Amino acid sequence: MPRNTPRRQITTLLPFLGLGFGLAITATTLAPPAMAAPDRPECLAGAKPGGGFDLTCRLIANAMLQTKLISQPMIVTYMEGGVGAVAYNHVIGKRATDANLVSAASSGSALLLAQGKFGRYDETAVRWVGALGADYGVLVVAADSPYQTLAELIAAYAKDPTKFPVAGGGAVGSQDWMKGVMLAKAAGHPARDMRYVALEGGGAVLTALEGGHVAIGAGDAAEMARHHAAGKVRILAVMAPERLPGELAGVPTAREQGIDIEWPVWRGYYIGHDVSDDDYRWWVDQFAALSKTPEFEAERTARGLYPFTLLGADFEKKVQADVARFKQIAAEAGM
């Protein structure tokens, strides 16, 4: 159950024939009508313009209008603070019943929820609508590294992790740090044995690798792919269930190499906890229809995302499972 989730109560106002008044009826006996379409569709990005949440909102704003799943342009609004925490609390406290609004989220949101960084609310305080794309984690070495496979790297790392500083584009506890932890665990070492170098973004990780300042880089496929293709770095494994298309088609997954590591960086959406079941279902159904269109595929590809569609109850279970997994990893790391 959510921590202090607002009580669920839906009230509808029925016009009384042609008269200028109405009767408020608590929806214990009368369900609200199914939502035909939002009259003012909106996507809330919990950060400044230009980041991942903005990308996530723009993905559906553009594709849903192109495919005529919405008749009005979707407004994208921004509410920065706490990497989505301020927006999350705003939806819960102010817009829990607003069926016009969906909000952007990512696997990073699940990570922060697991660490208690979204305040007093947990992952059950909203309704998770779906994920419509993903990037995937990658483990990278310099182009002149002696290690050609993930298995070779792990064997060497297992002998002495102090010789293998791992760079990531985020602080301790971030997604890149988590990828490094999974590498350490695969080599039989706890998180505390990892030498983690926190840098500002994937560009800094690439610079550190190319300059020989670190041995391993943890990052995302989209930001590393062209550097791998250009021969500037070598991606040893993608943390995906199957090989990725395009420039990384020749890179094996970690699982192919006998290492059970996956890290999808999903891009998804949630809605207020007290939105009606019918309105929630409307969004799920539209996302399902959208995901099958060529217009959406083009929008997703243009934003550097790979196919990853998970909707409704299946997505809800995914978020809950991610939060539980991240809590376990954090606990094992002493966080």
Automatic annotation (TrEMBL):
It holds the Pfam family TctC. It comes from the Bacteria. SUPFAM superfamilies: Periplasmic binding protein-like II (SSF53850). Transmembrane segments: none annotated. InterPro entries: BUG (IPR005064), Bug_dom1 (IPR042100). Belongs to the UPF0065 (bug) family. This is Tricarboxylic transporter. It comes from Tistrella mobilis (strain KA081020-065). The lineage of its organism: Bacteria, Pseudomonadati, Pseudomonadota, Alphaproteobacteria, Geminicoccales.
